[in-house]
From TrEMBL:
Keyword Glycoprotein in record: no
Any GO molecular function: metal ion binding
Protein name: Putative DNA modification/repair radical SAM protein
Gene3D superfamilies registered for this protein in UniProt: Aldolase class I (3.20.20.70), Photosystem II 12 kDa extrinsic protein (1.10.150.320)
Amino acid sequence: MESGLTVRKREDKSVMEKLRILSDAAKYDVSCSSSGVGRRGDGTGIGNTLAAGICHSFGADGRCISLLKILFTNECIYDCKYCINRKSNDVPRASFTPDEICELTIQFYRRNYIEGLFLSSGILHSPTYTMELIYEAVYKLRTFYRFQGYIHVKAIPGADPGLVERMGLLADRMSVNLELPTAEGLKQLAPNKHRKSILWPMRQIQQGITQSKNEIMVYKHAPSFVPAGQSTQMIVGATRESDYQIMMVAENLYQKFDLKRVYYSAFISVNEDKDLPALPEGPPLLREHRLYQADWLLRFYGFEAKELLSEKKPNFNVLLDPKADWALGHLEQFPVEINKADYRSILRVPGIGVKSAQRIVRARRNGNLGFDDLKKIGVALKRALYFITCNGKMMYPTKLEENYIARNLIDGKEKLPFDRDGMTYRQLSLFDDVRAAGWKQMNA
């Protein structure tokens, strides 16, 4: 039982002190990239969400968009072993009030610091109690403050489904963190959380989105439910799942819950616990990077998880990106003749991304393409030249042999997300989607 003095000390914190604590506490949640949803202002309120611009790191027009990213509270009734905010940790605690959330958002927006809000939270008293406070903040922001910008809210597993439903009519995106890839991992490191309670709100949000789309088709002005879709996050490296297991889970989530994004967060050791892995070389950031690359292949390139990995080959190659590694293992499908191959085959060539493949299919209608044409289109010929022909000829005499191609691709020094010192990998930040888009094309 807390003393009255302790409670008063927490209540006496200034809004700026709370902001410092709760923005820092939110940095471990990487799943708050927005998606370009269109929520146009009606002229009576503040802010708007345009499909051309609202994206945490890049929009369709390339603009970088910033969100106010905070926790409602870092108080928590749970004791997850990997979490800095677990109840057994002695860390500074703070909680906003709904009105403070509203004032912060509006003041930051008016100063042109942000264009949207990402709001997550620890669990204060109970999931339903916490969700009620978050709902009150978002409801006031939308109605009393007339804020019509982008809002991403975490749905809290175990909260009253009615609150999740009402929140879905106010938020642009909602997400439910899967936390760890498997139920066994949750049991080991987060015994208060259960897979079924996490998947339940995911299913509810999915059904709400589907129902809303159907109603809008019939009634044009029907209310929109979570128009930017839902996402989730998995911690990578805290438990012993292989890359194959993680990708199978991600694929299952995309297929069964219609998720927009699965985010992968390299485990960062912030607590001392015998059940947590030792990380002598730091967080598994290169592994996180490979998972993101593979995720692009699932979402945009038509790959299945079982094509990229298997039980016999459970983890990604640290030296090669997943697409190049797959191509080296399937050389019988190459070389691909650019002027005759179908779109799917062209898309699987290392060095050719989605936009380049689309341009190739369009451009060859006007005549056969050569290597100079491919370069203009945007194909990374340094990677693609081993896997393609133009008019039956390769760019240079080369051997279609695994070790030979692998040596040349590795010598190409794939660009990875380095820290400023150029020596260590850094975790993908919330502003890295624009870089990820570049990596997708570069490492295609």
